[in-house]
Amino acid sequence: MSKLEIVNLSKIYGKGESEVEALKGINLSIENGKFTAIVGPSGSGKSTLLHCTAGLDNPTTGEVILDGKNIFKLSEEEMSKLRRRKFGFIFQSFNLIPVIDIYENITLPISIDNKKIDTEYISEIINTLGLKDKVSKFPNELSGGQQQRVAIARALANRPEIIFADEPTGNLDSETTAEVIELLKLSVEKFGQTLVMITHDENIASTADILITIKDGKIVKKAENKQRKRH
Ligand SMILES: Nc1ncnc2c1ncn2[C@@H]1O[C@H](COP(=O)(O)OP(=O)(O)OP(=O)(O)O)[C@@H](O)[C@H]1O
C-alpha cells in the first residue's frame, strides 16, 4: 500500500533567462514501510524533489497526496504540524542544538509539540543507535558519526510516518558511513518506518528496496530490489 503519492510535480526556479526547470512532471508512489533511494547526477533535481515532497518547498505545479489530501492545500499551521508529527528529517549537516544535551536534542520534536515523552521507546532508540552513554553529553563532545546517530534518533523520536534523508552520510568517512546506514536501516526495519533517502553512494543505493533514478528533472528508472537482505 502506498503512503505518499507524488502527482505531476514540477518546479521552476527563477524567471526568464535564468529560469531552471528542476522537476518536469514527476509521478511517484512512496511505498509504506520501505526504503526508497533516490540517485542521479548532480543538479538532476533530487533535493528539489525531496524538499517538495516533504513540504519544505512549494512546487510550481503538482500535488503530494498524504492521507487523501494534497499537502499544498493545507494551511501554514497544518503544514507545520504535518512536518513536525508525520515527517522526520536527516540532512548532511546534523543540525543539533549546541546548548542542550543529547537526550534533549533527541526528544526535541516531542517537547516542541508539548507531547509526553514515551521514555521506553526513546530508550529503545537510544540503545539501538548505541548512544546510551552519550545522553548527557553535548553535541560538540561527539564525533561526526555520533552526531549523525543523534540526528537519526531525533528523526525517529516522534514516530514519523516517513523519514526524509538528504545525503545523510555526505560528511562522514566511509567506515562511519557504513555504520550509520546500517543503523538507519535497522532502525527503520525495527520501527517499521518509511525511508526516502538521496544518496550518491552506489553501495547504499543497492541496498534499497526501491531505487529511483532521476535525470534532468525526470524519473528515468524505477527498480525494485526484492532480494534485499533483512536483518
Ligand atoms: N534555490 C534555487 N534557485 C535556483 N535554482 C536552483 C535552486 N535550487 C536548485 N536549483 C537548480 O535546480 C536544479 C536541481 O537542483 P537540485 O539541488 O534539486 O539537484 P540535485 O540532484 O539535488 O543536485 P546535487 O546532487 O548536486 O545536490 C539545478 O540546476 C540547480 O542549480
From TrEMBL:
The protein's GO terms of the molecular function aspect are: ATP binding; ATP hydrolysis activity; transmembrane transporter activity
Q: Which UniProt keywords apply?
A: ATP-binding, Nucleotide-binding, Transport
SUPFAM superfamilies per the UniProt record, alphabetical: P-loop containing nucleoside triphosphate hydrolases
User: Might you report a single GO cellular component term?
Assistant: membrane protein complex
Residues in ABC transporter domain copies:
4-231
Report the family membership: Belongs to the ABC transporter superfamily.
Protein name according to UniProt: ABC transporter ATP-binding protein
Q: Which organism is it from?
A: Anaerosalibacter massiliensis
